[in-house]
Design goal:
By secondary structure, the chain is mainly α. It has 4 helices and 4 strands; from the N terminus they run βααββααβ. About 50% of the residues lie in helices and about 10% in strands. The protein is elongated, with a radius of gyration of 19 Å. The protein starts with 5 loop residues before the first strand and ends with a strand.
């Protein structure tokens, strides 16, 4: 079993990703579910969240002009297609939920997570970069 550690967030995460890192990393660590090896997976999780939130804000800005903006786009041929930003948002949301399950952060995934109490770190935090 790898040593429990609270990894530091990479500076490349956008602000939303960093906020999400702060929101969940200490809790995962406290529960004994986070080690230094998990930095990449946690980065992917927080990056997906950050990109999802960024995309939702762009869609909201587009929707101020029209009910279709941000949801549908008219092609040169006059057809309506889903706006590409909606596809990005959907992909990032799906990635976020999928990676959350890896950390036991969905109700169904949590039901199968078992961490022995001896492996829980308590209140002692050790950080790695």
């Amino acid at each position: 079993m790898p040593e429990l550690r609270l990894p530091l967030p990479p500076p490349e995460l956008n602000d939303d990703g960093k906020i999400e890192w702060g929101r969940i990393s200490e809790e995962l660590f406290r529960l004994g579910l986070l080690t230094g090896l998990d930095r990449g997976a946690l980065t992917a999780l927080c990056d997906a969240w950050g990109t999802y939130m960024q995309t939702l804000r762009l869609i909201q800005e587009l929707q101020k002009g029209s009910a279709l903006n941000g949801l549908m786009l008219r092609t040169k041929q006059g057809n309506f297609i889903p706006h590409p930003l909606r596809g990005i948002a959907n992909k990032q949301r799906a990635d976020y939920v999928r990676i959350c399950a890896e950390f036991g952060m969905t109700p169904s995934a949590r039901a199968s997570v078992s961490v022995p109490p001896a492996s829980r770190p308590g209140n002692a935090f050790s950080e790695i970069g």
